[in-house]
Amino acid sequence: MRYALSEHLAVLLTEAGILCKQLSGHPPALHIPIEQWITMAKLAKEAQLRLVALWATQDNDGFSVHAAFARQDHGYALVQTSLDANATGFPSLTSHYVATARMERIIHDMFGLVPTDHPDLRPWLKHEHWPQTTFALRKEFSAVTELARTEGRYPFIEAEGDGVYEIPVGPVHAGIIEPGHFRFLAVGEQILNLEERLGYVHKGIEKGMEGRDVFSGARLAGRVSGDATVAHSWAFCQAAEQAAGLEVPQRALMIRAVLCERERLANHIGDIGAICNDASWVFMHMQCQRLREELARMHRRLFGHRLLMDCVAPGGINNDTNIDDVQLLRIQTRAIADEMLELFDTYENHTPIRERVIDSGNIKAADAASLGLLGYAGRSAEHDADARRDAAYAPYDQYPPQIMVCRGGDVAARLWIRFQEIQESARLIETLLRNLPDGPVQTQWQTPLETSCGFAVIESWRGEIALWLRFSKNNLIDRCYIRDPSMINWLGLELAAREVPVPDFPLNNKSFNCSYSGHDL
Amino acid sequence: MKIFRKIIRTGLITEPLGQAEQKIEQLGSKLSEAVRRKFRGSLAIRMVDAGSCNGCELEIHAMNNPYYDLERFGAHFVASPRHADMLLVTGPVTRNMETALRMTYDATPDPKLVVAIGECAACGGEFGCSYASLGAVANVIPVNVVIHGCPPAPTDIIRGILAAVDANST
Fold first, then answer.
1. Contact, A254 vs A435, CB < 8 A?
2. Which of 94-153 (A) contact B at CB < 8 A?
3. Which of A144, A176, A284, A517 has the highest number of chain B CBs within 10 A, making it the mutation to test binding with B?
4. pLDDT score for B16
5. What's the farthest any 2 CA atoms get from each other in chain B?
6. CA distance B70 to B59
7. B94 vs A346: CB contact, 8 Å cut-off?
8. How large is the average pLDDT for residues A76-81?
9. Rounded CA gap, A68 and B61, in Å?
10. Average pLDDT, integer, range A103-131
11. The CA-based dihedral angle spanning residues A483, A385, A219, B134, taken in that order and rounded to the nearest 10 degrees
């Protein structure tokens, strides 16, 4: 994990006259006074740092607000500021970083701290039927509190004018998908605005983490978003291992990467099929579903779980692989990658699908960079962010992936990136398996010191996951913050939808495929 | 032309009744028979995610892939609860989905069979009951059949659908 940016940012802030203190311990973090929180964000924006995450914690003597930044060539930096126990708010960073808007609304919902000068303070995860004074992430709030139901109304954005109408969709959608609400403002077929209303699957994951031990926490982390279970458990374990100062055996790290890349294969293949299905091209859907099922069956056979849940565990992995398994994995990975290459050729030459995906749901490069769009959503619009390279966490420091970036920012570009990433993941899996060293796959867990923290980023198939945690006494988790890439990429979908007619929305939605569960936590 | 070549070369992979995975064979013929007898050959299913991590959804999707091909047994997914004979419900029911789940249930015509899918729907799973989660689906609406597993495999889900159809006396 690279933290060179931390020193870089410290110099930048000090030169600007900000009282910047380097906190002791690991991971490296900078502390600045609350009065200079906005100036810090302004400087970070000018230095073209990407905002990774923004979250709050309750400490012994008040609250802290934390921010994480990244830059491709320098890795990551953490900055925090303190609020005393009577504080009612903190300065909002939305004027410099749009992506903080929802993160700050969540802090407002969960801690009752007001982001001052925030342009939109409507509740976000806290739906209208929650009592207003519920602040679920405050320490004095018990996780098992039974909340009273109140009445309320969420004020959606409205529009007036001849022929403008609203289309409310959800939370229960028409397909086999997660729940969320979309409010379209449309004229004829053209979407004027899409407003997302999320939070329906908020099940209290962050609160539920508090007081768990590390093994129970890892199981919960594996269920933040079922389709990215490997990446989420890995992020959790990496942060916990960092806090405990634990060295994970190289063999375990490499198998983690193999599993994570296999997860990327499965989801990319499944989604390519599903996107084509939304444009009525059933052939591709059936081919891709078939390949995805073959991956799942192999996972069941070798690792005991079709989706690879609970394979990554604190200290290493739960299932070792023998030499025959390695051979099977390699052969299947190659065979499936070759089939996808063939299907890519078919796709490229199939005019009906090309007409639907090209120039649909465009994201401008400047918008992708300014929002900090992650994964294929960002990289298909020239925004080059990939935690495997930027954080250079093991084993990707030794086996770096080739990062695919392209121009366009439309559904076709998002599809293209994913076709390419399938090939690159297959190459990585083969390389990792060829070089898999012998040795143990587990290190004995050791109890971390009280207040020790960890920060991890993992490039899931969807994009960068960021996770920060802090331990309390007796191996228990004091606070765990999780930022799924969907937290940022949902904003991208709102932008993309402004460019498309209503019937093309499902196509676009699928091309982003954001997680509701990962966002709502 | 390439498409046709690929289709022909891929061939029929749907696991036929009579060989391959025994489970699908036996389950499938039983399900077709029950659907034919009790639903005149067509069982309409509406899927409702009441708070899952989306793991169960992946396995419900998988039932429609060419290996399992649920539709050949007469069961198919519909877009509205008003068209549905059966609801498949996943997830611990979140507080924020409670009303939507009740409304969906109310909108479903009789016999409105409910199959709770996965550990969370069965008992709250890893999320349990909290300020944000009401736990099992049965805490909110009546449930006919519960399928355990995190997530249950496609064959387990097919078995649950069959159990619900079998037990239905209308």
1. yes
2. 127, 129-130, 134, 136, 141-147
3. A176
4. 63
5. 57
6. 12
7. no
8. 94
9. 36
10. 93
11. 30
Res A462: pLDDT: 95
- Residues A62 and A84: beta-carbon distance below 8 Å: yes
Decide if A195 contacts A156 (C-beta within 8 A).
Answer: yes
The CA distance from B49 to A226, in Å, is 13
- Using a CB-CB cut-off of 8 Å, the residues of chain A touching B55 are 223, 226-227, 229, 307, 309
Supply the mean pLDDT for chain A.
93
Query: In the predicted model, is pLDDT for residue A65 greater than 90?
Result: yes
Which amino acid appears at position A337 of this protein?
A
pTM: 0.94
Residue A502 has pLDDT above 80, yes or no: yes
> Measured between beta carbons, which residues in chain B are less than 8 angstroms from residue A208?
127-128, 130
Are A272 and A284 in contact by the 8 Å Cβ rule? The answer is: yes
Q: State whether residue A125 is helix, strand or coil.
A: coil
Q: Taken in order B122, A271, A458, B132, is the CA torsion positive or negative?
A: negative
Query: Is A340 a residue whose pLDDT tops 70?
Result: yes
- As given in the structure block, the two tokens for residue A263 are 């997860």
* Residue reference for tokens 């890995």: A234
Q: Do A283 and B131 touch (CB under 8 A)?
A: no
Position B170 confidence tier, pLDDT thresholds 50, 70, 90: low
The answer to whether A147 contacts B67, with C-beta atoms less than 8 Å apart, is no
CA dist., res. A408 & res. A365, Å (int):
8
**B residues 80-109 closer than 8 Å to A (CB):** 80-81, 91-92, 94-97, 99-100, 104
pLDDT tens column, B118-143: 999 999 999 999 999 999 999 999 99
Which residues does residue A197 pair with via DSSP β-bridges, in sequence order? A181
Taking CA–CA distances from A225, the nearest residue in chain B reads: B53
DSSP secondary structure letter of residue A514: -
Cis preceding-peptide flag for A27 (omega within 30 of 0): yes
Contacts of A178 in chain B (CB under 8 A): 49, 52, 54, 57
**CB-based contact A203 B51, cutoff 8 Å:** yes
Residue B18: pLDDT band by 50, 70, 90 thresholds?
A: very low
Q: Which of A13-27, A203-217, A296-310, A375-389 has the lowest mean pLDDT?
A: A13-27
Residues A87 and A80: beta-carbon distance below 8 Å: no
For A173-243, strand residue ranges (E) read 181-187, 190-197
- The A residues from 162 to 181 touching B (CB cutoff 8 Å) are 171-172, 174-179
Asked if A286 lies within 8 A of B65 by C-beta distance, the reply is: yes
State both tokens at B65.
């892939």
Q: Chain A contacts of B80, Cβ < 8 Å?
A: 174
CB atoms A226 and B80 under 8 Å: no
Comparing CA positions, the residue from A446, A493, A488 lying closest to residue A106 is: A488
Mean of pLDDT values over A471-491: 94
Q: How many CB atoms lie within 10 A of CB A366?
A: 11
Give the residue among A457, A5, A393, A53 at the shortest CA–CA distance from A239. A457
- What span, in angstroms and rounded, lies between the C-alpha atoms of A220 and A203? 11
Phi, psi of A466 (to 5 degrees): -120, 140
Task: Give the helix, strand, coil percentages of chain A, each rounded to 5.
Answer: 40, 20, 40
**Does any CB of chain B come closer than 8 Å to the CB of residue A350?**
yes
**Among A216-225, A247-256, B70-79, the least confident range:** B70-79
Beta bridge partners of A439: none
